[in-house]
Amino acid sequence: MSETLGGLVSCIKDLNRVVGESLVKGTKLYRNRYTIDDEIGYGGFAKIYRAREQDRVEPVAIKMANKSDDPSYAKSLREEAKIIQRFNHQNIVRIQLIPRVDKNGSVPYTNAVELSGSPVFFVMEYLHGGTLDAYLGQVKQLSVQEAVAISLHVARGLDHMHQCGFSHNDLKLENIVFRRLIVAGEPFSPVLIDFGIATRVQQPSAGSLYIMPPEQVARVKMVAPPEVTNGIDRTKIDVWGLGVVLYRMLGGQLPFSGRSERSLTQQINRSRPISLCSLAGNIPPELEELVIDGCLAKAPENRLNLLELGRFLAKFADGDVVAQQSADAGKSAGIFGRLFGR
Fold first, then answer.
1. pTM of this prediction?
2. Domains assigned to the chain
């Protein structure tokens, strides 16, 4: 099958039941083209499975709607695949086209097949390295250069999205996955995943509260004056999300926390994060200023854009940065965890 990057949405032809429970190992999909190995991620709308494809050595990842009888589930996955189809960047997960044999025997590649009564799925590359969240659970905290190197990769992926007219809207540790298992002495390979609530930069969206900037909290939770929610620049929502990720990598904790949605919302809207320099003594004050004032500014117009952010971050990267600690293969490799906050 071609390695061409693109989007696909396909349906299971021979599976005649609603997928509420996980598919069992060995389940065959789409004219026996794919064989399920195991479930590697789940959420309210979809599950992700590792699978094997006919005549290929490398596994693939299949994201499948949980229900075949709810049109919103199918619509969500179709829209996500169409969005990812537009991207072609090393820091964004790759989607595979699926071959469809038509009546005259030709094999056109398709990104939409409608088969009545079947759950919708699309096929992605399988990412071997696990999530950034899982890696931080093992190493707790990264060096300045490691954190900056990962952030630069993520920023480049986000900038590509923005150039294509879309914002991610849900950038968090669980949605950054490494293409390869992290090995000490080798470079990082972070990849953006989960575009289920990605939108055109002008459209509204929902997301995970703990990584929302004030203007997004205001729209979702109605806790700020209406003028704050008008004309939201969604590219700045992704800058905020990257700031949260960078703060966690450098400081070992999230910039905002709370025992309830109300207290977390108040912190996001009113509180300044704890100084990174007080959490980790090796952080340059200029980098702290970049994260807290350049990414986590309450007013979106006061945040840097991604080009500015990348230029400033590059000042803290010294040559080719490699991982200082290997990831635990048993805890990280291929583990996606709970990917979807929907």
1. 0.84
2. 10-125 (3.30.200.20), 132-337 (1.10.510.10)
